[in-house]
Amino acid sequence: KRMGKRVEEAKVAVRNVRRDVLHDIRDMKNEKMVTEDDAFAGQENMQKLTDRYIKTIETLGDQKEAEIMEV
Asked: What integer is the mean pLDDT of 45-68?
């Protein structure tokens, strides 16, 4: 039970970082610091990173849960 809660907290933390980065990208685009294409590419890259880390967190959580259940 605790493991599931920790996994969810980690996923929320990753999503919060994504939200902050996407906000920064939008601000930079609005201030004309980056082009729309660069902003779109940055958003896509951030989403790919987020997906990768969420998957890693889930995998590690499942492994740890299986390890705990063995005992």
From this structure: 92
